[in-house]
Design a protein that fits this description.
mainly beta; four-stranded antiparallel β-sheet; about 140 residues; Immunoglobulin-like
Length: about 140
C-alpha cells in the first residue's frame, strides 16, 4: 500500500495568541514575535502560540510539534497527535498553544513541525538575556 504524500508547509508563525472566529473559522494572530527576552534564567514564558499551515497531504498523519534548543538539542516541550488531511488541495491550519514554557538558558531555539517523522516546517527564534533597567534616581518630571 503506498504511503501518504508528504504535506508541504505553507507557514509557521510564532505569536502571543491566536483567536479563531467561531462563525467563519478565520484566525487572527496577535503579537507576532521573533525574540523572547528575560532578565534571569531559567525563565518562564507565560504563553506562546504557533500557527502552522500545510497543504498537499492526503490521509492520516502522526503530527508532532516540538521546541528545541538548537545548540544542545534539548527539548523544551513536545506535543503529538493525529491530523486528517482529506484532500491534497485542502489547506490545513493548525494551532498550538504552549503555556508556561521554561527556557533554561539564553540561545537560539527552534519550533519544529513533523508529519510521520518528516520535518515539514521549522522556525527559529532567540531567547535573550534582557538588560536590567538602569540604576539610580528616576528622571526628573517636567
Amino acid at each position: 500500500m503506498p504511503s501518504n504524500p508528504t504535506p508541504s508547509g505553507l507557514a509557521i508563525v510564532v505569536c502571543d495568541q491566536i483567536i479563531e472566529d467561531k462563525a467563519t473559522s478565520k484566525k487572527s494572530l496577535i503579537g507576532i514575535f521573533n525574540n523572547i527576552a528575560s532578565p534571569t534564567f531559567p525563565c518562564r514564558h507565560p504563553q506562546l502560540s504557533v500557527f502552522v499551515s500545510l497543504t498537499e497531504g492526503r490521509g492520516t498523519y502522526q503530527a508532532r510539534a516540538r521546541i528545541v534548543n538548537e545548540e544542545t538539542q534539548e527539548s523544551v516541550t513536545e506535543v503529538n497527535g493525529q491530523i486528517q488531511l482529506p484532500d491534497v488541495n485542502m489547506v490545513a491550519e493548525l494551532v498550538f498553544n504552549f503555556i508556561g514554557l521554561e527556557f533554561p538558558a539564553p540561545g537560539l531555539y527552534s519550533i519544529e513541525f513533523y508529519c510521520d517523522d518528516a520535518l515539514i516546517l521549522e522556525r527559529r527564534f532567540h531567547v535573550m538575556q534582557a538588560k536590567p533597567p538602569p540604576k539610580g534616581p528616576p528622571p526628573e518630571e517636567m
